[in-house]
Amino acid sequence: MMTIACIMCALVMPAWADAQQTTKQDPDAELQYTYVERISLGFTITGEKAKCSMKMPVKTGKNIDYAQVTMTVKKSSGTTVKTFTKKVYPDEIGRISWADSHNLEDRGTYYLHANVKLYKNSKLVETVTGDSLSQKY
Predict the structure, then answer these.
(1) Mean pLDDT of 59-70
(2) Which of 66, 96, 129, 137 sits 20 to 30 Å CA-CA off 116?
(3) In angstroms, rounded to a whole number, what is the distance separating the alpha carbons of residues 85 and 69?
(4) pLDDT value at position 97?
(5) How confident is the model at residue 111 (pLDDT cuts 50, 70, 90)?
(6) What angle do CA 126, 112, 31 make, to 5 degrees?
C-alpha cells in the first residue's frame, strides 16, 4: 500500500509542484460555501516584511454587495501580531481581493488568519474563514 501511495505522489506532484500554495486546504472547502468558490491566501515573509493577500472568486450566479475583511497576522502560538480590517467590494469579474503588509518585530513562525463576512442587501449571508501555511522569520 505504501508503494502505491508513493508512486501516486510521484505521478501527481509534478502537476502542481510549480504552483505556490499558501493556504491550508480543506478537501471539502469548495462544497461548504454558498457565495464563493474558495478562499486563497498569500502569506510570505521577506526580510522583516510580512506580505499578506487574499482572493475569493464569487460563484457564478451569486452576487454580494461587499465583504467585511478581517485579516490577522498571528504567531504559531496563536498570539495576534497585527489585525487588518477593511470593507471590500467585488471587482468587475466578481472577485474579492485584499492585500497589505506588516513589518515583523520578533523572529518566529507566523501565519495569516482570514475571517471574511459577506453581505447582500445589508444582511450577513456567509462567513468564510481560512489560515495560510506558516512562514518563518
Answers:
(1) 96
(2) 137
(3) 6
(4) 97
(5) very high
(6) 35
Identify the band that residue 3 occupies on the pLDDT scale cut at 50, 70 and 90: very low
Tell me which residue has cell 487574499: 54
User: How far is residue 81 CA from its own chain's centroid?
Assistant: 17
Q: Is 11's pLDDT higher than 90?
A: no
> Helix (H, G, I), strand (E, B), or coil: what is residue 92?
coil
* CA–centroid distance for 124 within its chain: 20
Residues contacting 90, CB < 8 A, separation 6+ = 58, 63, 64, 66, 67, 96
Instruction: Please name the residue ranges forming H helices in the chain.
Output: 2-16, 29-32
CB neighbour list of residue 31: distance below 8 Å, 6 or more residues apart: none
C-alpha 46: how far from its chain's center?
18
pTM across the whole model: 0.77
* H or E stretch at 123: strand 123-131
Residue 107 amino acid letter: R
C-alpha cell at 97: 481581493
